[in-house]
Amino acid sequence: MLAKNISTYTNMPFWLADTSLASKIHANARFEIPQKADAVIVGGGFTGISAAITLARAGLKVVLLEAGHLGEGASCRNGGLLGPSFSKLGVDGLERQYGRDNVHETIRESLVAFNWLVDFIKEEQIDCDLSLCGRFRGASHPSHYAGLIEQAEELAKVVDFPAIAVSRQDQFEEVGSNAYYGGVIYPTDGTLQPAKLHRGLCQIAQQAGVLMLEHTKVRDVSKQNAMYKVQYDGGVIDADQVIIATNGYTGGEFDKFKRRIIPIRSAMIATEELPESVIRSVSPKLRAHGGTERLVAYYRPSPDGKRILFGGRAFGRGDQPQLYSKYLQDFMIRTFPQLEEAKIDYAWSGYVAYTFDHVPHIGKMDDMHYAMGYCGSGVGRANYFGRKIAQQVLNQVEGKTSFDQFPFNTRPLYTGKPWFLPMIMKWHDFADRRGW
Ligand SMILES: Cc1cc2nc3c(=O)[nH]c(=O)nc-3n(C[C@H](O)[C@H](O)[C@H](O)COP(=O)(O)OP(=O)(O)OC[C@H]3O[C@@H](n4cnc5c(N)ncnc54)[C@H](O)[C@@H]3O)c2cc1C
Description:
By secondary structure, the protein is an alpha/beta fold.
């Protein structure tokens, strides 16, 4: 079924329509940049801000430089789905390469990361609509149901992570769609409003003394003797330590990192406000949702329970909402015919960062600290790894992570432009249609 309503949407993240957010932070002015800092952080998303908080609270003089607005990257553009992201780890492949025990450690640490962020939000009283509402993952093909259950059983042997199987007959208590063949509920997963979380973190960083500059793109980092020279548009700052936190927006100025990241554009739409009965007909328990398709689609109600936010694949070069909003709306209506009349109010996209081994990476390369490559699941991970990389800068034992063990590899001839993606997407589309 195709969309009847070709809506006139606004091309911006729904999250930023909350006008109260604008007054929450005031970036510092250029003239406030000192000539020397203990640490310079490149990138003002979750990774960068989280690292900045940890360093500043440890007493370091921290300057954070952001090329656009603070949070302009993926951190204020995501769906706000929060979980330990087990399904994003390519567990089988990793086990073959690194051994079972090592990989089990990363699975356990993924849960630690999720719990850490939930606790941090509560302790710091960050108002970000955090709701531990649970997530329903539906089997998008009859053959996928058994695999979902098996995956949950395997995880239960490694980590205390509850999962509840739901048969096709019972699934309508969880999701108002015929598109699934049963599924699994992860009752401890959650949702939040990412731009509110980001603003809350920026406020904490400012209170801790971090200088944060917008529209200040870093052009080059070099090391002379023991000191870094960080060149940004309009100036240079010396620093004892540098952290690269540019994730899917990593550019040629950090060529070695760029060659290790596969930037993939991901998109979202938000419907107009709908009656509660319609929202509950989609998500009776107001949970987060997704399916088992290879071309990932995920959705959730807005925090006020009035809209459906639906995310998935983007098309074309650059931000082309005329292409992806139609695709996502058609996908949404195929899954939920009851949304056929719903208008789309917002459409937007951003870059996620995949890696060749499907694992986030953290460490030191070319003498620069970094954390990146969250493979589309970065709300929890970026915050956690931002903190970890700061602890590594501080030489604290807490900075050690089981993710240190994975080498951050590229592939021969890969320059950072994923020319192969259209072919891979076509293959995934083909496989999805056959339920492989
Ligand atoms: C549409 C979409 C939906 C998503 N949904 C979810 C979800 O539901 N759940 C989930 O867990 N994850 C989701 N993600 C992924 C998640 O948002 C990211 O993994 C996370 O925000 C990454 O945070 P970050 O700080 O590492 O990177 P970003 O937030 O992308 O920040 C990187 C920043 O670096 C800046 N930068 C780059 N180069 C320079 C330079 N030279 N100088 C200065 N600054 C520079 C950029 O401008 C950017 O602001 C989604 C992502 C997108 C795009």
